[in-house]
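#struct-pred

JT: dropping the chains for the assembly here, can someone run the whole complex?
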Amino acid sequence: MKTKSKLIKPYTKKSFITYALLIAVFTIVQLILNFGKMSFMMQSLLVPLCVYSILAVSLNLTVGILGELSLGQAGFMCIGAYSGALFSSLMKEAIPEAMVRFPIAILLGGLCAALFGVLIGIPVLRLRGDYLAIVTLAFGEIIKNICASLYLGKDAEGFHLSIKSAADMNMAPDGKMIINGALGLNGTPKDSNFTVAFIILLITVIIAYNFVYSRTGRAVMSIRDNRIAAESVGLNITKYKLITFGLTAFLAGVAGVIYSHNFSTLQASKFDYNMSILILVFVVLGGIGSIRGSVIAAVVLTLIPELLRETIGNYRMLFYAVILIAMMLVTSNSKLKGRITAYTNKLKGLIKKEKKGEIK
Amino acid sequence: MGFLSNLINGISLGSIYAVIALGYTMVYGIAKMLNFAHGDVIMIGAYVVYLAGSKAGLPPVAAVLVAMVACTALGVSIEKIAYKPLRQATSLAVLITAIGVSYFLQNIALVIFGANPVNFKSVVSIPAIKLFDGQVVISGETSTAIVVSLIIVIALSLFIKKTKSGRAMLAVSEDKGAAQLMGVNVNRTISLTFAIGSALAAIAGALLCSAYPILSNTTGAMPGIKAFVAAVFGGIGSIPGAMIGGILIGVIEILGRAYISTQLADAIVFGVLILVLMFKPTGILGKKISEKV
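RK: done, full complex below.
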């Protein structure tokens, strides 16, 4: 008779190790926080770390599982951040309880981003490779530009909206500005904290693992590996691509909501092309397709530059760029890859030999 | 008259985009990759012109020549170091590498030249042309950009049609394997393409920064992406297409900026890209490529 432990599938084990690791890290951080041993700078990094991890995991679904490059991650994040923050600042009086308001904002932000993800995905996902990358980049820039020129105010007559200037809104002088163009949104309630951000990160990782090892996930991976073969066994390519793209957008939107509720001001210029690239660096360095890797890379690559801010300064981005190129050369060039595997095998052999020697 | 001068400015900006788009379209046609770093080669080229011209005191034409040599060397070495090892790799890997190279160039420029933008001294000394009793003024930079880009497009088309290396480029873009069997040196042809594209990038950098004289490490990024939009618009792989696409994008951008919204001009250009790819993914002059199983 098989014991119960043998019935656990390998991927269940893999995902549970990740959950356990995450919870362990969270507990340790909480302990340090409780003893008051954490510097203020580190404390301010906790929520962004979770946000970046969520973004990296979500982008990994598109890059790693679907095998398409999306450079619009910041755009989806921007949609989530704006819609979530707008909801919270409008509902501050109507729903004073943050525990009720924030989850609604998170869901709303995620859904708005997912809606845009699907809308943009329908025409765009017919394209592949380079075209898809450039269109998602273009889309991200469009979102950023529109958000940066958005003016919204409220006075006795109701809401006033303009995409040109504050004067264009025809708002009464006693009205209240809600979104002020390039200056962005002010007065978002500071609802995010480390615990909430961590719980959302954990949920994201659970969603990601369950997605990858589901029937849908396998279908998506088969499309990645051979699109024509997948199509010929009857998989609806567009549907699976849209599902993945929508899920990525949803999670990016959620990350955006958490991000926007961590600061009281929100500017669209934050969500530029560089943000999308940064997330891509996390995904690539963590290992394309590896969810645990994405989280680790996001945490490590955010922490190291922050800790060494004074010593490395401008070299930080240069370092990322070199890592990106080197990683791609090492993992995708068959000659280099072969050489490295041979070297590591040799190393492993040496270690084994040494161990044997010890036994003797 | 305001419309006319906007239109001329649009054509001028579009001509610069066209010169940049040529680099994209040639590399895409031959190496089947999107050279994301092309826009940043422009920025490096402009810095070299600035150093050679304003700092070392070379005459403008000599400074541009120095920049062309430098950019050619840069383009060819980028290809050798970063892209050539990945010729058999997936397009995702190549694209990520190209983004890495782009990021690398931007940040190495940041480290070397600093974060403060420099004031670029125009390389053009042609006087402005006044039309309709001075109601429409065409600056020297504007007319030079249009003339130079026309010359480049004509010269490049002739080069590809008439010379042996040019025809080799055509052959490689049609079918790499068959070209190799016919005795074409594929690697050398790809290097040549990168060399020409990068030399053109230096010219584009000088023209761009003469018209918009603020030079920083991210100067090339946005024009680079817009030029790619232009290349897609005109039909990727086509040289006259790059010219037409470039001018259309330039005109759309300037008119959008003048009549719709300054802040939304970029969004309009990218909106055009999305529309083109939705309705005619092959662009105006592009060929349809069917996929073989």
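JT: nice. Residues 2-31 of chain B form the longest helix (30 residues). The CA atoms of residues 107 and 217 of chain B lie 7 Å apart.
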